[in-house]
Amino acid sequence: METKHIQAIGNFLSYYETDLAYIKSFQDFKNKKGNVNNQSGSFYSFLVEFRVVRNFVKGEVDDLLIQTYDWITSDYPDDVDKFAQKLSSTKLTRGNVMGSMASKILFLNNPWEIIPMDRLARQTLKVRQNEYFIYKEKLQDFKEANRILLQDCLGKIEPFATIIENKFNNDLQDLEIIRANRMIDKILWTLGKQ
Fold it and tell me: Residue 169 is part of which domain span?
């Protein structure tokens, strides 16, 4: 294990509880169990922390949330590229196609399948386009090529991640999949900074 992998583990441990709080809050909102803007892990806080807030028109968080809810209840809730196109047709993104933003938002809806795409992760995967379908293909190759590294990192974080997850066991299913996906994200992010 190299220093950069230790840094990825540190990043994972620093943000994992907050990530789960954002996911839980969004899942509660989706399932009509709470208001995503009035509790720990608010949608707006997520947009700020994940550096998405700068990509859409100021004061339009509620409209973005409505657009997101409409999308996740549609026939293609996990299609990041189509969601980015849809948002670009609204005033929210000033006509820009924001694939990274779309992936981060849809990650809240399906953290079991969607690993957010950002500049650093794309850099690690050598993806120039801001299109999720290309990113997803390269991501799959990365996961296969780094399977042993991922298992090693997951083994090191397991005792700590389990403690963090205890708070969410009753609210989120398949936490081990979310854990693995968040670890992959942190590895990509850390390698992209190198």
Answer: 3-193
